Amino acid sequence: MQDRPTAERHTPVLRDRIVELLAPALHAEGAVFVDGTLGMGGHTEAVLTACPGAIAVGIDRDTEALTLAGERLAPFGDRFVPVHAVYDEIPEALAQRGIAEAQAILFDLGVSSLQLDEAERGFAYRMDAPLDMRMDQTTGLTAADVLNDYGVRELEVILRDFGEERFARKIARALVAERDKEPFANSARLVELLQRVVPAASQRSGGHPAKRTFQALRIEVNAELSVWSDALPAALSLLPVGGRIAVLSYHSLEDRITKRGLAVGATSSAPPDLPVELPEHKPWLKLLTRGAEIADEAERADNPRATSVRLRAAERTRAKPLSKAGHDVRNRYQNAGKPSETTTKMGETR
Ligand SMILES: C[S@@+](CC[C@H](N)C(=O)[O-])C[C@H]1O[C@@H](n2cnc3c(N)ncnc32)[C@H](O)[C@@H]1O
Asked: From 3.40.50.150, 3.40.350.10, 3.30.230.10, 3.30.420.40, which CATH number describes the 6-114+224-334 domain?
């Protein structure tokens, strides 16, 4: 753990734009802001400062993040409520606290700089550490479990789909051959294998040879895409009319789920042959961003994490669709970003 205060160690991506998008929904006294990915609390701090009547419920699956964000947000007293949960559990987490809706919701997806900075968490390929990569270290499979227990085909699919790794098959085969000699435990041995297996020409043009494999393992270990597919419709169902949601994605599959998820609400559901659009077919979301917004050059130069960000935001424009429609919405998410054969942890259908 480092000694510098949390706030100094971290700059939230697109902070001012997030405040600009969400603050109009948070002016009323007692308005609820849900930060579904609290991290080190940078966005929540900015929102609570800009919206003095609002309270914030900060969700994170990482207990260390909750502790650090709690220190940073202590000056806001009981306007900040920390919750240890996975973000697809937000409706239940709010209900337990007697909250039925949220006027604004933010998701800043992926790992935090805290998680990347701390060698022992195993997220960073530049530091030797146990192959853990769990955002919630209290539960679940580690990256070492995935590497040592998954079949060669499963590994290939994960590397290809979650890491967008061109050499997925070659790497998967090399991983299985290597673990047969001795199971994987630490990242240095994995990095050394990747340096050997990824062709030199690709290493020159495609960045660090371990980058894509580490990303793929992290997404698998934390079931990031399937959880996000469930979390987005659940979050949208919490928005009252006028409520707003903003999502920062860093991976094309994540952003695809976000784009399609918002499009479901922002598009008329009227059958094409119906001459008149009935009220129940009207869109119930208005997109607040044109396509996906990116960070400007200055922010990208200043914060490497901002280079791949895609921001999408929307506002609820009418009351909840019927539950049947809500059900349809969820089904349509389920297929939005899932790779062909596997998205979830070993043991589930692939
Ligand atoms: C990019 S960071 C958020 C940074 C934050 N916006 C800030 O300003 O400090 C993402 C955070 O989301 C958390 N997270 C990722 N997936 C999650 C999930 N499914 N449920 C709950 N928290 C999650 C991670 O543990 C991490 O702390």
From this structure: 3.40.50.150
